[in-house]
Amino acid sequence: MPNMSSRTKAIPLSGIREMMDLALATPGVLRLEIGDPDFRTPDAITAAACAWAAENRMSYPPNSGLPELRAAAARKVSRVNGFACEAANVNVTIGATGALYLALLAAIEPGDEVLVPDPGWAGYPAMVALAGGVFKAYPLRAENGFRLDFDDVAPLVGPRTRAIIVNSPSNPTGAVNDAAELRKLIAHADRHGVWVIADECYDEVVFDGTSACVGTLAPLEGSPVLSAFSLSKTYAMTGWRVGYLVAPKDISAQVTRMQAASVASAAVIAQRAALAALEGPQDASAAMIVAYRRRRDVATALLDAAAIPYIRPQGAMYVFVDIRAAGLSSRDFALTLLREKAVCTTPGDAFGTNGEGFVRVSLACADADLAEGLSRLGQFVAARR
Ligand code: PLP
Questions:
Q1: 30 CA distance to ligand 1 centroid (A)?
Q2: 2 domain-assigned
Q3: Which of 24, 227, 268, 348 could be 198's S-S partner, Cβ–Cβ 3.0 to 4.6 Å?
């Protein structure tokens, strides 16, 4: 049998998948490990897609996305994210995953180094490897609330570094980066010919104040910033698979060619749904964000009552809980909690070595499951103190 490519073998295994498989095999388990909204896609969005399908207008969309959706995404970026953007800056992609992967393909040569946050979304190392790059973790420190500190990242930028991925609000910590640190990072990256790839997947899931969208910190044309957006979390549309990449116009045109060569486009029906999401009433999405905030408050009150420390999330859909008092590694903690208390969490080390000592609890579950799961987690820690 022929050999598999080295690219295939370079993709690291996900520690998240292991917990999900165990949860599925455990009857009655409380699922606090999930990163998928428990809400339905708002009916108006689904209805728009169904109406389009009923008219049987299912031909190929342009590789860059439907023109009206690119224009709607550009309007949304200008209105919500606060920086001027035109349809020609936008490629509609298969989720933020598609946008991030195309951004990497546009940014790096095989063997180039990409700095990724640690702890950070487990998808980054895998997609850097798939794009032929080499990932190098940059530390986010618990004592700094897991916010990016320019002084921790800058020394890691070397001659082979070609891109830095930043994510705020963060999965898994819910941390929101400071604009001043990001500004320094963009200037440093620009001086060294390095791209800044901003993962804005949770741009609208913000609880207190605002999150500094990286695109607001540099002019779009001629800047090193490539911004990946998603409809997955804002509109409970994970399975529709729509996102978009915002880039300078000349890069955008190249990205369209890469999309043509790889997947052709996002599905037309999903793009119609996305158009209804961006241009329609925003009340259903706003209600979901209110629910995540309420769950954040419920979860942190329960953790406070149990005297368990955590990182107070400013956005996204997770609480990063400090379990060091239990005296177990994050993996052993998560596996034993699942076995003894039927509560599934994600061990912090699945997000990088700096996630050790923490587990991620998702807010994307029913309020009652969250409360019961955290109460069992509290008993579990108390028994080990
Ligand atoms: N980036 C982060 C930080 C995520 O947490 C996720 C999904 O959980 C993604 C990207 C992928 O999002 P999408 O569904 O838009 O591909």
A1: 22
A2: no
A3: 227
Give residue 220's pLDDT: 96
pLDDT band at 385 (very low <50, low <70, confident <90, very high): confident
38 lines ligand 1 (CB under 6 A): no
**Is the CA virtual torsion 9, 11, 12, 17 positive or negative?**
negative
Question: Does residue 232 sit in the same domain as residue 296?
Answer: no
Q: Which two tokens stand for residue 316?
A: 């996204």
**153 and 248 together in one domain:** yes
- Give residue-wise pLDDT tens across range 51-70: 999 998 889 999 999 999 99
Q: How many residues does the chain have?
A: 385
Query: Contact, 15 vs 349, CB < 8 A?
Result: yes
Q: Does 315 contact ligand 1 (Cβ within 6 A)?
A: no
Q: What is the pLDDT of residue 27?
A: 87
Last residue of a domain, one of 261, 279, 297: 279
Residue nearest to atom 7 of ligand 1 (CA): 35
User: Which domain range does residue 211 map to?
Assistant: 48-279
pLDDT greater than 90 at residue 11: no
User: Which residue, 253, 279, 305, sits at the end of a domain?
Assistant: 279
| Same domain for 360 and 256 | no
Tell me how far the alpha carbon of residue 285 lies from the centroid of ligand 1, in angstroms: 17
pTM beyond 0.90, yes or no:
yes
Strands 225-230 and 195-199: parallel
Whose CA is closest to 215, among 182, 262, 261, 253? Answer: 182
Structure-token pair, residue 59? 């031909």
At 250-298, the pLDDT tens digits run 999 999 999 999 999 999 999 999 999 999 999 999 999 999 999 999 9
Any atom of ligand 1 within 6 Å of the Cβ of 121: yes
Cα 204 to ligand 1 centroid, rounded to whole Å: 13
**Distance of CA 97 from the midpoint of ligand 1 (Å):** 6
